Structures are given as C-alpha cells and as structure tokens.
C-alpha cells in the first residue's frame, strides 16, 4: 500500500493512488486520483524547467515553485499561492526555505497531539523537511485501504535556538493540475443545517470555514469538489473532512494557469501558537478521498471511513435503540408523574429508551438558571434520577439523560462560587447566549470539576444513554491559563477532548449522542467519542429531507438522530402526515419527541406499526449503503435508498413536496441492486384519514354530509382507507436501468383503488427483497413481473 523508492513515495488504496516525488528537494504531488501503476518518473513529472514570465527561481535550471504541486510550500521563495504553514522566526520574518530530508514508514499510527483520529490505518508514512531557520516539519500520511481514504496531518518542531510563532498551521495542502472545479459546502444556520451550496472555481480564491469556536452549522468541516460533468454516479469527485470539533477553515485557489490548490485545517484568523526551542505542534487530521464514480462513490468512501475508522468500536455496528425524548412534549414543565405517563405509553408502543431532556437539575425551570449545577431537582423528581430510572427500567425501557456540561448560567451555584471559571475578557462584561456563559475548558480545574460531576451523576443511576448538548457559540475569547491568547480556540478544543476522554471513553457502554443546538458541532471529532448526533433541532419532515440529504454527502445515516414530532411542527408550524414524519426519520436513528399521551388511538396504532416495521429492518436502515435517488436541493421531491451489503434487501423512501395536479409519475430508477437477482417490491401499507378528502367524500356516498361535521369526524375515528397496494417482481437490472413504474397520483376527483392518494408532503416507502425464481413463479406479467 505504501512504498518508498527512487525519490518516490507511492500510496495506494483499493481504487486510488497518491504519488509523491522528493527528488527536487521538496515534496511534490505528482498524482492523486484513480489508482495507477507507476513504471517510470518521466510521464508524471511536470516539465517546467524553462519557466514562465514572472517566475522567481531559487537557482538555475530549478523549476519555479509556483509551477509545482507542493505538499508544503516554502514561504517567500517563489510560490505566491497561500500555503498551509506560516511561521514567524525569532528575527520577526516569515520566509522559510524547506528541504526534504527523509521518508520512513512508521510502526504505528501518526502522533495525534491529543486529538481524535482515524482508527486502525493500514500503513502510515512520515516525510520530514527542515529549513535553515531551525524549523522541522513532518508530514504524516495514513492509508485506509478499503475505505479509499488517505489522511494527512503535520507536526512542526522548533529546532532553533530561539522562539518560533506559528501564524497558520493547516492540516492539508493538495495541488491539482487542473481548474474549473465545482466546490460544494454544507452551510446553513440553526434549524437549517447542512444545506448544500455550490460554487464554480475560477482564477482567485474561494474561502470558507467557521470561526465560532465549534465546527459550526454555518459551514461544516466536510466539503467536496467535483468535475463540472460529475453526476451522482459518474465523474471525478474529491471529498475532504477534518477529525476536529473546533473552528476551521478551507480554501480553493485557482492560479493564472488553471491549477488548483485545496487547503483545510485550523481557523487561522487570530491564531498564534508560540513554540519555544524543542516544543512541537500537531495539527488535526485531515481526511481525503477520491472517486471516479461520482458523488455517490465519494459519499460511500466517506461513509465506510466513518463507520469503520471513526465511530467508537463498541457502537460501530451495534443496533441503536428507538427512543422517546420528552423535550417537545413537556419542555421544562414536567414532574415525575408526567414523565412516567409518557413512558408508559411509549413502552406499550415498543419504544426502547426514555430520554429525560433539560430541566432535571438545580433551579432549572427555564433556560435562565441552573446550568453548571448537578443536584437533582427533587420537586420534580422526588425519587431522584435513581428512582426514575428504576421505574423506567420496570417498564422494559432503558433510561437516558440530557447534559450541557460546558456551560454555566450566571444564576447558578457554580457561577456564584467560581465566576472566574466562565470565559471572559478582563475589563468587559461577558456576552451571553441563551442566558448562559461558556466554561473555560483551557483551565485544568474546570475540566476536573466537569468530569467529576458528570461521572458522579452517571454513577448515581442506571443511565444507558447521554445527550450531550452545547447551546451557544464562544465569545470573549480569553483564558488566564494561556501564555498567548492566539492559542485560545485550539486550546479550548483540546480541553473539550480531555472532557470526552474523561467521561465518554471511561463509559464505553453508555451510548452518547452529541448535540449543539442541533447540528452546530456535527463533525468527526465528536463522532470519535459519540457515535450519533442530533443533527438539527428542526424535526419538520419536509425540512429534514434537505438536512439529511446534505448530511449524507459526508456522513452515514447511522450518525443521524431523526425524530418524529408533533404537528404543527414546533420549528416551522408546518403540517405533515404522521407517516411522512416516520418515513423520513426511519432513514436514520429513529426517535419520537412529543407527548405520546395526547395521541389518538389511531395515531398510537400507527406508531406501534411504525416501530415494529423499523425493528424488522433496523440493520438495513442504520447501516446499509445509502443512495440519493432524487436530490431536494435540485428538485421539489426527494428520494432515498438503502441497500444491505449482500444486496438482498433494500428500502426506498419516496417523498413528495407540493403536489402537482394532473401530472404523470415517471419510472423511479433504483441503484445498488444486483443486476441478475430477482427482487420483490412492496409498498409499506399506510392509512388515509377520510377527512383528507373534505367535500369529495360526498362523491362516493349516497347521502350528503358536512365534511367538517360531527358525523364525519366521528366516522373518521373508526374508518380509514388503505393506501394503494403494489407488489411486483423484477430483476435488479430492470429496476435500476428501466425503473419502477408506480401507480398514478391522485388527479383531481374520485377514489380509485389504483391511485396513489398523495397530499402535499405525503410519502411512500418501498421494501425490496431478493426472492428465489420459484417463489416468484406464480406471478404474471399483468401483476407487474419484469
């Protein structure tokens, strides 16, 4: 997978190659892309010795650095593109002249610098460069063969006699020989995270990132670049991510000759990291992948990497429980009786985990008080957490709990005792967000208090799940624990990882779910400790189609917490059918977030059937290969598909936006199935409320009824219509190449058993399973055989 020979470092994954050349004194990237076999250097080495007008050269017959694809650029020596490293020497200058020294294979993984990283690389190589000023740089590359991923990080050591100050230290610099790439970022805000944005690169620089102290909902650390002709299934696509949870940045720079430099790593605005002689600094790990099979191929590489090399081993393939969270059902207004009422209902419907959200501690009756305190509010929970957990366990469910350990309210015992523990700039009144301040994780005593308090709480009851929240951005960035305030963002993030190590890593059997006002800290760094995320506070099904689709470009469904909530939705006031809310949430980690006691008898029956269906297909839905059949960023509708590893089972979600009247339903082309396998395709049964038809109900009745009258409402409690039934057999080649022809949509009048009755935001789910030829022999062509 990695070989070092003849001034070359060759790295190969299953389908990609990363080729480096060290023969001209620097580390040049000759190729990163589809897997190749190298015979000789000649065809790969750039021929630029003659130079171009305006070049600055280090010596005769030395190619200009600006014409080379460099993994690390010297500063001020002719490469005028931005570089990954900017360092200030003791003399105050920033010019650096690096020279390659050695390349060596490591016996183990690259040094981590106290940060999470890809687990279990197949091989790792280190390339060392030094410069006259005494700076030493090591470039580490790890190969993850089956995931088609290469990871990179940099370690800088001060070998000089005087101090050095790092002003920029990014994790990866990648030069591509061509331009005109399309840049795709996951951008957004609270309640509309992971929105896919698209920009075309031209000469100049496209910059992006997030400077709020967390990985952020404004711009996720994952991004990708695609050739202009790339589609979901074909074309060149490069994917990038960081195993990091703090502020980050990235850029795509296209020079005057159409060459492209892509960089990403730590947020550099205000960054300053002093290195005394002998001290070292290690960057976060960057993740790179390439696919010539379009966006889906790139996504599948990233998904395999996350599932097999990022998630905690205990939860890598473990079935995740179906939960009920009380937050939107009660907010802060609950007591033990109310919680147990919800829990009893949930248990009867098949829910496996009850999660008590915010409001269980201190004087936490609203969001203005109590954060930082861990004493249980006995007015709400007279039996404490232990008593409540025991009663929940007695119903056959596990018990989970919400925390927000990094925060403190000014109105709390902790703040009154230690006001200096909050992040604040001397001489300024600290700014608040959601009535709270941020605890200074740069300080050892603060970290020790949080670790001790949370672990004590976890030991006080049978708690099997934790929702770890963080509900505001950093501000007033200053810590008395630091010798240079330019260290703050990164030092704070390193402190966060020490919390995770002291709490999550010491409780491997507790399922941790990350949350930061939804998806404000959805990244590989958190997923290293917490195998799932609450990716958005927005549980509206229609909005979730974009949110979950965007997230799927870089993250697998087994990381996405997805809840069925009440309508009107609490974030959008939108009304969507209960089946659509479930059909959307089932393509992730299913949960419910509403007061189940207020549901009607019919709704409870529907939810019970939903949970039974999900349990029957949990492994497929949580860990199957994910396909985007219709992208809601490009059209009104949305369609998803998951296929299991041996291609014997699949599930398709077909989601409608706004109904277009009197319109056709084109064949739905599937993906990922075995061409020669015979499959049975069945639609999941759903029910239609007769009130859906309004006055059209009189079209089929012998007498006239008021559609808003008591008689129709009473009848609707006991009478519901079945949705269409579809049952076909077809070979995988037919389903993928020709597509699945679905029944005609409702077209304006009347009820007919061969119509799909779809309102705005309605949906269907199709279950697909492999069948033997003899089992399908009874079907006829008229019944849909293909």
Summarize the structure.
This protein is α+β, with helices and mostly antiparallel strands and about 775 residues long. The protein is built from 14 helices and 40 strands.
Description:
This protein is of the alpha+beta class and 786 residues long. The strands form eight sheets. Strands 6, 7, 8, 9, 11, 12, 14, 15, 19 and 20 form a ten-stranded antiparallel β-sheet that branches. A hairpin with a 2-residue loop joins strand 11 (182-189) and strand 12. Helix 6 packs parallel to helix 7 (488-503) and helix 9 packs parallel to helix 10 (578-585). The model is unreliable at 780-786 (pLDDT under 50).
Layout of secondary structure:
Blueprint: E1 2-5, E2 8-12, E3 16-21, E4 28-34, E5 85-88, E6 98-105, E7 123-131, E8 135-144, E9 149-158, E10 164-176, E11 182-189, E12 192-200, E13 204-210, E14 219-226, E15 237-243, E16 248-254, E17 260-266, E18 273-275, E19 280-282, E20 285-291, H1 294-310, E21 323-325, H2 327-330, H3 336-349, E22 353-356, H4 384-394, E23 398-403, E24 407-408, H5 413-417, E25 437-438, H6 444-458, E26 463-468, H7 488-503, E27 511-514, H8 524-527, E28 532-534, H9 541-552, E29 560-565, H10 578-585, E30 589-593, H11 601-616, H12 618-623, E31 625-630, E32 638-643, E33 649-655, E34 678-683, E35 687-689, H13 710-716, E36 720-722, E37 727-731, H14 732-738, E38 744-745, E39 755-756, E40 763-770
Parallel strand pairs: 21-22, 21-30, 22-23, 23-26, 26-27, 27-28, 28-29, 29-30, 38-39
Antiparallel strand pairs: 1-2, 2-3, 3-4, 5-10, 6-7, 7-8, 8-9, 9-19, 9-20, 10-17, 10-18, 11-12, 11-14, 13-16, 14-15, 15-20, 16-17, 24-25, 31-32, 32-33, 33-40, 34-37, 34-40, 35-36
Helix pairs in contact: 6-7, 9-10
């Amino acid at each position: 997978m990695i070989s070092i020979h003849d001034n070359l470092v060759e790295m190969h994954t299953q389908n990609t190659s990363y080729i480096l050349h060290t023969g001209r004194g620097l580390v040049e990237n000759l190729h990163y892309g589809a897997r190749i076999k190298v015979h000789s250097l000649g065809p790969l080495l750039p021929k630029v010795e003659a130079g171009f007008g305006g070049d600055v050269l280090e010596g005769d017959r030395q190619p200009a650095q600006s014409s080379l694809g460099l993994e690390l650029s010297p500063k001020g020596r002719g490469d005028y593109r931005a570089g990954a490293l900017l360092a200030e020497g003791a003399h105050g200058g920033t010019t650096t002249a690096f020279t390659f020294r050695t390349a060596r294979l490591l016996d183990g993984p690259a040094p981590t610098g106290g940060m999470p990283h890809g687990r279990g690389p197949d091989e790792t190589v280190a390339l060392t460069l030094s410069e006259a000023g005494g700076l030493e740089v090591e470039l580490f590359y790890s190969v993850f063969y089956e995931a088609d991923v290469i990871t990179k990080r940099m370690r800088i050591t001060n070998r000089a006699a005087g101090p050095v100050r790092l002003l920029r230290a990014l994790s990866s610099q990648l030069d591509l020989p061509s331009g005109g790439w399309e840049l795709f970022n996951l951008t957004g805000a609270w309640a509309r995270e992971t929105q896919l944005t698209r920009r075309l690169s031209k000469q100049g620089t496209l910059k992006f990132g997030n400077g709020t102290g967390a990985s952020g909902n404004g711009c996720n650390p994952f991004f990708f670049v695609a050739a202009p002709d790339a589609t979901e299934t074909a074309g060149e696509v490069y994917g990038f991510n960081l195993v990091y949870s703090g502020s980050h940045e990235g850029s795509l720079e296209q020079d005057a000759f159409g060459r492209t430099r892509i960089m990403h790593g730590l947020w550099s605005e205000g960054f300053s990291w002093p290195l005394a002689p002998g001290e070292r600094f290690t960057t976060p790990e960057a993740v790179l992948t390439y696919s010539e099979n379009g966006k889906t191929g790139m996504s599948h590489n990233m998904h395999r990497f996350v599932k097999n090399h990022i998630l905690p081993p205990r939860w890598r393939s473990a079935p995740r429980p179906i939960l009920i969270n009380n937050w939107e059902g009660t907010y802060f207004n609950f007591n033990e009786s109310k919680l147990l009422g919800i829990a009893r209902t949930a248990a009867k419907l098949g829910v496996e985990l009850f999660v008590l959200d915010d409001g269980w501690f201190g004087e936490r009756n609203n969001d203005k008080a109590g954060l930082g305190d861990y004493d249980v509010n006995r007015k709400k929970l007279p039996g404490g957490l232990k008593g409540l957990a025991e009663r929940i366990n007695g119903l056959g469910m596990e018990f989970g709990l919400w925390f927000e350990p990094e925060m403190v309210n000014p109105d709390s015992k902790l703040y009154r005792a230690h006001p200096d523990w909050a992040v604040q700039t001397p001489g300024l009144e600290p700014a608040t967000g959601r009535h709270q301040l941020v605890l200074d994780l740069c300080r050892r005593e603060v970290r020790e208090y949080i670790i001790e308090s949370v672990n004590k709480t976890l030991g006080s009851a049978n708690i099997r799940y934790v929702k770890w929240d963080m509900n505001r951005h950093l501000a007033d960035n200053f810590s008395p624990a630091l010798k240079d305030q330019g260290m703050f963002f990164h030092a704070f993030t390193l402190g966060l990882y020490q919390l995770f190590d002291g709490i999550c890593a010491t409780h491997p059997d507790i399922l941790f779910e990350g949350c930061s006002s939804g998806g404000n800290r959805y990244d590989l760094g958190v997923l290293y400790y917490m195998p799932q995320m609450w990716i958005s506070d927005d549980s509206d099904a229609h909005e979730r189609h974009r949110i979950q689709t965007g997230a799927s470009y870089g993250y697998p469904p087994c990381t996405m917490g997805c809840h069925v909530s009440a309508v009107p939705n609490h974030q959008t006031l939108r009304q969507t059918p209960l089946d659509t809310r479930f059909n959307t949430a089932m393509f992730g980690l299913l949960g419910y977030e509403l007061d189940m006691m207020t549901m009607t008898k019919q709704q409870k029956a529907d939810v019970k059937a939903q949970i039974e269906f999900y349990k029957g297909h949990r492994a497929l839905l949580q860990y199957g290969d994910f396909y985007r059949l219709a992208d809601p960023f490009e059209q009104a509708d949305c369609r998803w598909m998951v296929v299991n590893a041996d291609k014997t089972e699949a599930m398709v979600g077909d989601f409608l936006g706004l109904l277009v009247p009197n319109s056709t339903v084109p064949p739905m082309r599937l993906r990922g199935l075995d061409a020669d396998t015979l499959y049975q395709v069945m639609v999941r049964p759903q029910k239609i409320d007769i009130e859906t038809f309004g006055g059209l109900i009189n079209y089929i009745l012998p007498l006239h009824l008021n559609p808003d009258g008591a008689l129709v409402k009473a009848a609707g409690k006991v009478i519901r219509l079945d949705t269409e039934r579809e049952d076909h057999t077809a070979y995988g080649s037919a389903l993928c190449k020709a597509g699945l022809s679905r029944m005609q949509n409702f077209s304006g009048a009347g009820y007919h058993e061969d119509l799909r009755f779809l309102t705005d935001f309605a949906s269907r789910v199709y279950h697909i399973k492999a069948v033997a030829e003899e089992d399908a022999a009874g079907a006829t062509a008229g019944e849909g055989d293909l």
